[in-house]
C-alpha cells in the first residue's frame, strides 16, 4: 500500500478532532480551492494546509511537494491526512509523503466532492461536502 490507509471523510474529521497533532492537507489546485471550497477546521482550532500535488494548468506533479510539506507541517511523526476532489491525487500524495519520511499518512478516500453520480455531477455520492462536514468557500 505504501501509506497508512484510506479513511472516510467522517473518520478523517474524528481523527482530526481526537489527535491534536493531526493535519489535513488539501492537495487540489488553487482554482479548486477558490471555486469549489475547502474543508473548514475552525471548530477544531485548526486550518487546512493548502498544498497542490499537481500544478495547474500543466498538472505536473510538484517535484518539491515533500519539501514544501515538511516546511508547512513540520512534525513527520503525527497523522497527516490528504484530501483532493475524489481521492486519487490524495492517495498519490500520501504515498509520496510516506516515502519522504512521514510516519502516518492517510488518504481521505471519497475526497472533497466524491464520485460522479448518474448525471456526471459530483457532490451527491460521497465526499466531505456530502457527509455534511464543515467547509468554506472564498
Automatic annotation (TrEMBL):
SUPFAM superfamilies: Rhodanese/Cell cycle control phosphatase (SSF52821)
InterPro entries: Rhodanese-like_dom, Rhodanese-like_dom_sf, STR4-like
Pfam families: Rhodanese
Gene3D superfamilies according to UniProt: Rhodanese-like domain
Domain Rhodanese as annotated: residue spans: 18-124
PANTHER family: RHODANESE-LIKE DOMAIN-CONTAINING PROTEIN 4, CHLOROPLASTIC
Protein name, entry field: Rhodanese-like domain-containing protein
Taxonomic lineage of the native organism: Bacteria, Pseudomonadati, Pseudomonadota, Alphaproteobacteria, Rhodospirillales
Amino acid at each position: 500500500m505504501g501509506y497508512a490507509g484510506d479513511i472516510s471523510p467522517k473518520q478523517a474529521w474524528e481523527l482530526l478532532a481526537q489527535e491534536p497533532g493531526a493535519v489535513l492537507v488539501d492537495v487540489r489546485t488553487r482554482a479548486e480551492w477558490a471555486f469549489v471550497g475547502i474543508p473548514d477546521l475552525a471548530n477544531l482550532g485548526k486550518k487546512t494546509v493548502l498544498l497542490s500535488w499537481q500544478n495547474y494548468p500543466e498538472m505536473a506533479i510538484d517535484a518539491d511537494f515533500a519539501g514544501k510539506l515538511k516546511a508547512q507541517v513540520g512534525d513527520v511523526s503525527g497523522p497527516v491526512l490528504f484530501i483532493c476532489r475524489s481521492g486519487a491525487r490524495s492517495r498519490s500524495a500520501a504515498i509520496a509523503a510516506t516515502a519522504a519520511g512521514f510516519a502516518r499518512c492517510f488518504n481521505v478516500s471519497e475526497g472533497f466532492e466524491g464520485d460522479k453520480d448518474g448525471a456526471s455531477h459530483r457532490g451527491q455520492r460521497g465526499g466531505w461536502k456530502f457527509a455534511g462536514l464543515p467547509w468554506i468557500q472564498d
